[in-house]
Amino acid sequence: MELINDIKSLSSISGATYLAIGVFDGLHKGHQEVIGCAVDAAANAGGIAVVITFDPHPRAALSSGPVPRLLTSTRHKMVLLERLGVDQVLLIHFDEPFSRIPADEFVAQLASACQDLRQITVGSDWSFGYKRSGDLELLSRLGDELGFDAVGVPSVRAEGQVISSTLIRQAVEKGDFSIVEGLLGRKYTVLGTVVEGKRLGRTIGYPTANLSVHNEKLPPSGVYAVRVALDSGKGDRHIGLANLGHRPTVEGEQGLRLLEVYLLDFEQEIYGEDLEITFVKFLREEQKFDGLEELKTQIAADEMQVRQLELQA
After folding, report:
1. Which residues in the chain land under pLDDT 70?
2. Residue 98 contacts by C-beta under 8 Å, 6 or more apart in sequence?
3. I need a surface site. Which of 13, 110, 131, 200 has the fewest CB within 10 A?
4. What is the pTM of this model?
């Protein structure tokens, strides 16, 4: 999958071009329908499917206050888009000047840059452009003028509710992974980069990978059985034991919330690498122990429980 960062770079595509446009936080089932429409149409025509998305999230770029954590950071989103069979991604830097571009001008820029724009696919309720003045009706009218098909994909529903990133975020917050999986169409994962820690795990025989999670939504604190994919899911896969919380035994009550993972039967140095973590099963609440020996005993029991689950990496 190729990543481009400028609308003008669309001119390098010589074949028929099929665009899917959206923020796509979470890449849930509804998003997959929009993207799949472009991917399938491009495949049938021997063309190129291009997803257009934005970084940072428009809400984060324009809001002066706190914004919700993402379901998928931009780096994670690229990994997932490649798995969906997307040929190219146009990642547009979203800032205040970009937000002021009128909807019709934005579409005209896309049409002008593409050598052979055949189709633009969006969610049927998607709005875009300055003051969100653009909608499917405008896109259809511009398509008639500029020579492309405008396709609006209806919202996808699950158990009577429209699937949305907000709905999924609420389920993640509660740790309702079965609900999350039903809405996403895949297991919930987070992407993090392995950073240096205090290496206390090594002193008790359980070296952990401390993760800097890329502003992604985390489930409730506790200990989990997890699957771990190295190098953004392209490399080796392992079974692990994750602790999400403040680590009160070693940090006291004021420790920062941290995700750390112990990979079973693994000894490599992986500082700086990305790990994709799949939360498989909640094992227990995080708790404070009287000392490191008591903590070590509990981790051994947690490891045994993970092994008894007989998870496939």
Report:
1. 198-204, 232-235, 247-256, 313
2. 92
3. 131
4. 0.90
